[in-house]
Design a protein that fits this description.
Shape of chain B: globular
Number of helices of chain B: 12
Largest interface: A-B, 36 and 31 residues
Radius of gyration of chain A: 20 Å
Largest sheet of chain B: none
CATH superfamily of the largest domain in chain B: lambda repressor-like DNA-binding domains
Structural class of chain B: mainly alpha
CATH architecture of the largest domain in chain B: Orthogonal Bundle
CATH architecture of chain A: 3-Layer(aba) Sandwich
Structural class of chain A: alpha/beta
Radius of gyration of chain B: 20 Å
CATH superfamily of chain A: P-loop containing nucleotide triphosphate hydrolases
CATH class of the largest domain in chain B: Mainly Alpha
Number of strands of chain B: 0
CATH class of chain A: Alpha Beta
Distance between the termini of chain A: 46 Å
Helix content of chain B: 55-70%
Order of helices and strands of chain B: HHHHHHHHHHHH
Helix content of chain A: 40-55%
Order of helices and strands of chain A: EHEHHEEHEHEHHHHHEHEHHH
Shape of chain A: globular
Strand content of chain A: 5-15%
Strand content of chain B: under 5%
Number of helices of chain A: 14
Bound molecules: adenosine-5'-triphosphate, magnesium ion
Strand order of the largest sheet of chain A: 3-4-2-5-1-6-7-8
Oligomer: heterodimer
Chain lengths: 313, 196
């Protein structure tokens, strides 16, 4: 496969609840990045519900991720043209990421192949849920993006998802540095240390050991989640997005960037049913502009350094 | 100065923020967390009443300290100093253990009501009452209770260390009791961090 030197950026789109618009936003962001001239590959990693191709007005590709897993076809050979210049697609398989049938070695191999793809941007559409494989794929990304709607259930699932991502990340760090036992011990004795939450556990660990503090600060730098608010209907909804940064940092101990919103527009629905690529054919829909704007914001962010005191609240 | 950086942090502002920025951010945060919009409701157990109150009182404190720092002409909210006569002082010295009841007795003897105390300490009257009645389930974090006790003691011109030494073991034995442990409904982080 292409051992090219191009070091593209990996974006992953996930976020708990089904139907918030992850696939729609992924296809929109991908189209915009491609229109700007960079080679862009969309990877449809949704469980069973692979439908990015429909959103781009394509028929289902002959090859899919199952060829990669079952027939050992290199990922770079499954890439199909989308019909939009610079935009390509890797179709999902039915036995996809959220599946026990994918073992650790296969997952690692998939990640290696994703990293080696010759593109400026690789956008991974993760689908709903927080299966461990979904979390690991999300963590693989340089830019981690969640799509939510301004609705309480959708926000609940989003909080749950980003918490799971954060737990998973910490667990991997602890494991890599042989700290799991230490941390489990501290947690067992949490009553004596006055620890009530993960946030307080992290504060305690950082205060108790310079080594752990350094490890956490190093490994967590750049751990930022971008939030996209989709299907916005009123100006009041937009405020929800603006509040999320403060809410997440104060009460979850997590650093998020609000990338922007896209409104609810019947044109989206119509375009999907007509199997038309939305971004190309709806130049007058405000949603096109909004998706472009939020894509630019995510693209422009230079991996902002982790706010130093994120977990200290 | 370290403390001031924390205040800026709490207000989510850089240290070079102007007084106008401090004010509008304070109003924004105060509104956000006093109301109950969906983005807050959705936090469920991550946003308890206790956490909210603790946060809001820290926010008030940070705002006040920063305003004072930026605009020293504005009068600080100086805690009134209580007049304690010899007899009362002697009576206080006789107190064997500063438990909740003793604290209330001192307060009542000094003729202070909870509202007055709230104005200066910014500890909500019902919390002050919980301290006096030793109703501990509302103090999930020892640190918060500690800081309340310190404020309480200072307000009554008692020695905070002495009061803490008497009072905190009562809380600790409560947290160790089955009743106190029953309050622990945290998600089991251990299992999340556990072995594969
Ligand atoms: N901005 C929008 N305006 C109007 N309708 C929208 C918008 N975004 C998404 N939708 C509608 O929501 C539906 C679901 O969108 P999409 O398939 O992108 O969600 P998803 O998050 O990928 O779902 P799943 O979790 O099932 O993968 C779309 O079919 C579309 O009709
Ligand atoms: Mg989808």
């Amino acid at each position: 496969m292409g051992e090219s030197g191009r070091k593209g950026e990996i974006w992953a789109v996930g976020g708990g609840k089904g139907g918030t618009g992850k696939s729609f936003v992924t296809s929109g962001m991908g189209t915009h990045l491609a229109q700007k001239g960079g080679r862009t590959i969309l990877l449809d990693a949704d469980l069973g519900g692979a439908n990015l191709h429909t959103l781009l007005g394509m028929n289902r590709n002959r090859h899919s991720l199952s060829d990669f897993f079952d027939r050992k076809v290199p990922l770079s050979e499954i890439v199909a043209q989308s019909g939009i210049a610079n935009l390509e697609l890797i179709t999902g398989s039915f036995a996809s990421l959220d599946s026990e049938s994918i073992n650790h070695a296969q997952k690692q191999k998939l990640f290696r192949h994703i990293r080696a793809l010759d593109a400026d941007h690789v956008l991974i559409d993760l689908g709903a849920g927080s299966h461990i494989n979904t979390l690991d794929t999300f963590l693989l990304a340089d830019k981690m993006i969640v799509v939510t709607t301004p609705e309480i259930t959708s926000l609940e699932n989003m909080y749950q998802f980003i918490k799971s991502v954060y737990f998973r990340k910490l667990k991997l760090i602890f494991k890599a540095h042989n700290l799991t036992a230490t941390i489990q011990g501290t947690w067992k004795d949490r009553a004596t240390h006055n620890i009530r939450s993960l946030k307080e556990l992290i504060v305690h660990l950082k205060q108790s050991s310079d080594d752990i503090r350094d490890i956490l600060e190093r490994e967590m730098s750049g751990f930022v989640i971008y939030v996209v608010l989709n299907q916005v209907r009123t100006p009041k909804d937009i405020v929800v997005g603006e509040n999320l940064k403060s809410v997440c940092s104060n009460f979850l101990g997590l650093s998020v960037v609000y990338a922007g919103h896209s409104r609810h527009d019947e044109a989206v629905h119509r375009s999907i049913n007509n199997k038309e690529p939305f971004m190309l054919l709806n130049r007058f829909s405000p949603v096109v502009k909004e998706i472009r704007t939020l894509t630019e914001i995510i693209a422009a962010e230079p991996h902002p350094l982790f706010e130093k005191d994120m977990v200290n609240g | 100065m370290d403390k001031y950086l924390q205040y800026y942090d709490l207000l989510e502002l850089p240290p070079e923020a102007t007084i106008k920025e401090i004010h509008s951010k304070y109003v924004y945060l105060k509104n956000l967390y006093s109301c109950n919009p969906i983005e807050i409701q959705a936090l469920n157990e991550d946003f308890s009443q206790e956490l909210r109150e603790e946060y809001l009182s820290r926010l008030d404190d940070a705002y006040e300290k920063l305003v004072l720092l930026m605009d020293p002409k504005k009068p600080a909210r100086i805690p009134q100093s209580l007049k304690i006569d010899e007899e009362t002082r002697h009576w206080i010295e006789q107190i064997g253990c500063f438990d909740g009841a003793a604290l209330r007795a001192v307060r009542e003897r000094l003729g202070v009501d909870l509202k007055e105390m709230f104005v200066v300490t910014r500890i909500q009257p019902h919390h002050l009452q919980n301290i006096e009645n030793e109703v501990f389930e509302f103090f999930r974090a020892e640190v918060i209770l500690r800081s309340f006790i310190i404020e309480y003691a200072r307000f009554l011109s008692l020695d905070p260390q002495r009061v803490l030494a008497d009072y905190m073991p009562r809380y600790q034995s409560w947290t160790a009791s089955p009743e106190g442990r029953g309050q622990d409904d945290l998600p089991d982080i251990l299992t999340m961090l556990g072995q594969e």
